[in-house]
Structures are given as structure tokens and as C-alpha cells.
Write a structure and sequence with these properties.
Arc Repressor Mutant, subunit A; 17 helices; 381 residues; Rossmann fold; DprA_WH (chains A, B); alpha/beta; two-stranded antiparallel ribbon; DprA (chains A, B); 9-stranded mixed sheet; homodimer
């Protein structure tokens, strides 16, 4: 059995049934691709499978398909390849996933690009969102994507206009790895306006599809494709999404898979963020910086720093020191007795905090009166 | 013991210690206000209390304070009044609250305005946020506040510039009830630029403070005041807040009190929303519409409607109908066999869905070819 015969069998099988087809996947796993293809062509198969392949059993374009693939430097990725993302695809063992329409792993994947799919899946995050993105959404998508790609996280998305495109482009812009998962054949650039973008992704990242060459994207294929985006990503980040959005579908896949669902907030006045806010109300993790995504998809210990808090001259003061400090007027000065009344503290208890504040350079005494020192040194953190 | 003597005693006691002063509150609860005031002036009290009142024991401006209060049509609200929000103040029994600095209920409250404090607390929501609000934040604060006030929810806030002011003004604008909780005397309009706003609130809502007349606001009094904002509100909604913000302090009080903490999201690029996003990451409830707040502070059953989902012509189609529908081209027509190949279904299984789609007016047949009907009727929900 030649390598070519095996490849031709996989290519034929990839087209003979609409993916995913668990009956076909199981048949191929049992007989091997070459034997399975021969049996199907001979009509020797269980009746359940016969129904699924009936419409396309006579179509065998494997040779042309593989020639196209070779010409473009692509490859078929099968479960027999070390690159097959076995670990990531264990999510398809999940009952929640299997209950959903198309909730099975693909049988084989068509791919073009230097990135290894198993490595992508081990450290990947999906950045997805609406085609009707706002300038804000595209800006944030690009910012998150560049931040991930710079830290060697693969940015997985669907190559659509809007958020997806902004995410892919930003990853390319920092020479990072980005992966486009298509809902049609890898030789069918979709949307057509992203042909050049997909070409660039083929050069440095990965364009991947479970559909054979020439297959055109269709609505149900986008929904089916979305499960692959979620499965190949440790976290799915929805940047902008309307109330009805494919990105929400990808998030639902991620949730069923037990993967972390994230959403970027936006103005509540923006319809493009409404879907994100619904996700956040349902428990999605709020994302405002790339570090917060890396904390999820990265190695243990890659924790995001706390955002920097602005400092004020009152940081680090004790309660008594603060009461005394605040009892001093903005301009001018006060006596010990006046400070005591204002602070509501006995005069003798005012002295200690005043002395400490003086040592710290926050207040000064002049002729028995106390005043605030402006531009006092900032306290050590 | 005349009513006037009791009022004068409360007024004196309100100033003699910095509020809240649990030692004084307990002493007054034990002896009654008149006897407590007399004992304090005579120096007959526990030493713990003596320290707390030492600086101000000699100050008795009760008559002038009450004269000012009467002139403005105000009142003292004490635990003996039916208006005292006993139920709301049970949050001060909470250990988490008592552990915090100033985590005790006020002894007495100075108030001006027709709204009853107990009714406010039974159906109130705090709308708070940064003084450095953006146009977006002020817009959302006003929108939420008006929506609450129109549905008879009292809008509680702190009368500051920015979010607080926008919330108060919007409630006034729909003839609703709004409550300003001050960090100084009710005769000390703060900020000064909100004098007219506070005057309007006195006319239809409530201006309230635990501090005696003339007391100027100070930083620690804002922090102390914030606990009252939270206590008087079934939910605390932070509309915009920087990373370091008084509103975050109010939210911390609400959390310690077991009250619902809410935050409005905004652009992640906006520093004015950064504090809200931190709260949301920590579990605050995301708010995008007034209805979502009413669901929390309103009566059981006042549930927010789900946001409206846009409809598409494919709503309500079965999986098979969708596959068949999608197998038809955008323009032109296809034969049964072509549809079967595209959909990956046996030709005989394509007929049933096609017939149903035809009945529904979604597709039509002409000379053995099938095509999509544009502008098909919308499906019933």
C-alpha cells in the first residue's frame, strides 16, 4: 500500500460525506482508509453509512485535490500523523459536545502553512467576533491578538471580516502565529476580500479546513467550523458580538467543551457589544488585557500583574494619621486643639500622629501651628 | 422631658463624637439621649467614651443647629422614629461590616426632604461613580437613573460631580425620588457647584447626613459616608470608576453587607471604566439596562425581559431543511441531484425538506429546478 494510495483514500473519504460523519469516521477507523474507500465504492458498508454517502459516492476527485494541495505546499493531517491534536480533540469525548449538532471531531484536515496543529492547540487562543465590528472592537482585537502572538500564543480565528480579520492581521504584524479555520475548501478564499490575508497566513501560520477543496462555505458549515475554532483554543475570547452572532456560537462550543469563555466588554450603548455583555452576565470571564488571556492558556505561573493603582499622598497612613492629616486645612494652619476638635480625637492623641506625619515630611509646624506640606514625597510602596 | 429637650440632646450628641462612635451609640441607647447628654457634660461616663468625646465635649450648638434645621424644613431621624431604616441597617450586624473601619450604623441622621428614609431603603439603588466621568458614563448613569426613578426606585448617590450628579439630575428630570448622602453637614453644600442640585433634591427627595451642621467633608468622611450609600441601597451600581475610586469603596461596603454589587462595562481602552472591569472580574453583576437593576431591588417577579434577538429567515428550520436550503445557490437554481451532493444527503431525503420549504414559501420549483424565494415571509416566533 503506497503512501499515495493512502492519501488518495483520505482525500476521497473527506468528500464522500458531509463532515463530521461519525459513521464514516468509525468505518475508516475500523478498516483503514484504503480498505474503507474500496468498500464504500463497492457498496459494502452498513446501511446507516450508505445513506450518508449516497449522494457523493460516485465523486472521486482525489488526484486533482491532492495535486492542488501539493502545488500549494499543503498537507492532509490525519489521526495517524503526530501533528493530529489528539489532546485538544479529547473535548469531543464530552457528552455536552456530542449532544450538539456536529459535535464530533473531523475525520481529516486539509492544511496549508508551516505551523504544527498540535503545537497551536497546546498554546492557542481564539479571538473571534462580529463582522459588523466597530473601530473600538477592531482596535481591541488587534491589541489582544498582538499581545498574544508576541508571547507565542497562536491566535485562532475564522478569517471573517471585522474582528476575525483584525485578529489575524495583528498577529501577522508582530510575526506571530495565526490560524484561520475555514468553513469551505482551503482553496476557496472566503470572504474573497481576504484572499491576500489568507495567502499571508499560509506563509507563516496555518489555514485549515475539514472540507475538501472546492467546497463552498455555507451557513451550517460556519456553525460546524466554529466547534473547531473552540477545540483548537484553550480560551475563546469574544471581542464584539451582536445578540445574534456566530461568535456566540463559538462561545457556546467552548462552554460545552469545558474551555474558558471570555468576552471583552464595551459600551452598553453599542449593539456590537451586546452579545459580549450577555456572555459576561452568564459567567464569561471579562478580558481587558492580553495578559489575562495568557493566564488562562499559558503555562502555570504565567500570571497577569495587577493593574497599576495610582498612588496618593495618603497611602500607607494609619487611621489616626489620616484623621489628623485630614483635620488640617487645605490652606493655612491649625492649632493642636483645633485639630483635635476637627478629628474628634483627644488633643493628647493628636500629638503622636502629628509627629509621625512631620517625620514623613507630610506636615510641618510653625509657631505652634500645623500645616500640610504640599508636594510631599510619595510614600514607598 | 419635652420633645425639644430630646431633640437638643440628639443634636448635641451628634457633634460630640466623630460618627460612627459605637461607645456613644451604646451609651445613648442605655440612658436615653437626654440623660446621656447630661452625663457626658458632667464627665460621668466610661473611660473609653471619655476619650472619644474629649475634644468636643464643651461644644454645644444644638439650639442654633436645630434652628437652622427647622428653617430649612428638615428633621432629625433617630432610631425612635418610624422612619429609621431598621431593616436596612441590620447589615451593620454583619461581622464583615463590623470588621471594617467605621462599620457601624450612624447614631442619628440629619435630613431635609419629603422622602421617607425607610421607604427609600426598601426600594433604593445606588448609582455611583467617578467624578472624572466621560460623556459615555454620564449618559449611562442618566439612562439607568431615569429608568429606575420612573419605576419608583429611589436613586441613592453621593452628590459628587460626574456620575453622581448625572444620576441625581436624571431622577429629578423624571420627577422621581433621589437621595443625596453627604459627607459633611447638610448645610454645607458639597461640591459647591452642586448647591442648586442639592436644593432641588431637598425639594422632592432627601438630603441626608450623619454629620452635624457646619461639619466640612473630609476624606475619611467620604469613606464613612459610602457605607451609608451602600446600606440604603438594595444594589450598588458602579457606572464608571478608575482603578482607585470612591465608588470602588462603596462597592466594597455593599459586598461586605451582602448587597448586590453591580458594574456597568465600558471600553477597555477607557481608564474611567477600569475600576468597573476589576469589579466585574471579581464577580460583580454586569448591568446594561435599568430593568436588570429592578430585577434585583424590586419585588419578586419584576424580571427583566430578555433582550430582543434579531430574526432571520432560517429561524425555525429543522437541520435537514437548513441543509437543503443552504444547498441552493444565492442566484440561479439547482436540480434535486445537485442539491443532494451539496447537502451531502441522499436525493430521496432532499424531497421532504424541499416540500416543506416550498409550503413555507421559502423555495420554489420551476421546470424541475429549485431556487430560493427572496423576501420570503418571516417565520412565526
Amino acid at each position: 500500500m503506497t503512501v499515495d494510495a493512502v492519501r488518495r483514500a483520505w482525500a476521497y473519504l473527506s468528500r464522500v460525506a458531509e463532515s463530521p460523519c461519525p459513521a464514516l469516521t468509525a468505518f475508516v477507523a475500523g478498516h483503514g482508509p484504503v480498505e474503507a474507500a474500496a468498500r464504500i465504492k463497492a457498496g459494502a458498508m452498513p446501511s446507516e453509512l450508505a445513506g450518508r454517502i449516497a449522494a457523493r459516492v460516485h465523486i472521486d476527485t482525489a488526484s486533482e485535490d491532492l495535486e492542488m494541495l501539493d502545488r500549494r505546499g499543503g498537507r492532509l493531517i490525519t489521526p495517524d500523523d503526530t501533528e493530529w491534536p489528539h489532546l485538544a480533540f479529547t473535548v469531543f469525548d464530552n457528552d455536552e459536545v456530542q449532544r450538539r449538532e456536529s459535535g464530533r471531531h473531523p475525520m481529516v484536515l486539509w492544511a496549508i502553512g508551516p505551523a504544527r496543529l498540535d503545537e497551536v492547540a497546546a498554546r492557542g487562543a481564539a479571538i473571534v467576533g462580529t463582522r459588523a465590528a466597530t473601530a473600538y472592537g477592531e482596535h481591541v482585537a488587534a491589541d489582544l491578538s498582538a499581545g498574544l502572538a508576541e508571547r507565542n500564543v497562536a491566535v485562532v480565528s475564522g478569517a471573517a471580516y471585522g474582528i476575525d480579520g483584525a485578529a489575524h492581521r495583528a498577529a501577522l504584524g508582530v510575526d506571530g502565529v495565526t490560524v484561520a479555520v475555514l468553513a469551505g475548501g482551503i482553496d476557496v478564499p472566503y470572504p474573497a476580500g481576504h484572499s491576500a490575508l489568507l495567502h499571508r497566513i499560509c506563509g507563516t501560520g496555518l489555514v485549515v479546513s475539514e472540507y475538501p477543496p472546492g467546497m463552498r462555505p455555507a451557513r451550517h458549515r460556519f456553525l460546524t467550523r466554529n466547534r473547531l475554532v473552540a477545540a483548537l483554543s484553550g480560551a475563546t475570547v469574544v471581542v464584539e458580538a451582536g445578540l445574534r452572532s456566530g461568535a456566540a456560537n463559538t462561545a457556546a462550543w467552548a462552554e460545552a467543551m469545558g474551555r474558558v469563555v471570555c468576552a471583552v466588554p464595551g459600551p452598553v450603548t453599542s449593539a456590537a457589544s451586546a452579545g459580549c455583555h450577555v456572555l459576561l452576565r452568564r459567567g464569561a470571564q471579562l478580558i481587558s488585557r492580553p495578559e489575562e488571556i495568557i493566564e488562562i492558556v499559558g503555562k502555570i505561573g504565567e500570571l497577569a500583574d495587577d493593574p497599576e493603582h495610582p498612588q496618593t499622598p495618603l497611602d500607607g497612613l494609619s487611621r489616626e494619621e489620616m484623621l489628623v492629616y485630614e483635620a488640617l486645612p487645605g490652606r493655612g494652619s491649625r492649632s493642636i486643639e483645633e485639630i483635635a476638635v476637627e478629628a474628634g480625637m483627644p488633643a493628647e492623641q493628636v500629638l503622636g500622629p502629628l509627629a509621625l506625619l512631620e517625620i514623613a515630611g507630610r506636615v510641618q509646624r510653625r509657631e505652634g501651628q500645623w500645616r500640610i506640606v504640599r508636594d510631599a514625597p510619595q510614600p514607598a510602596r
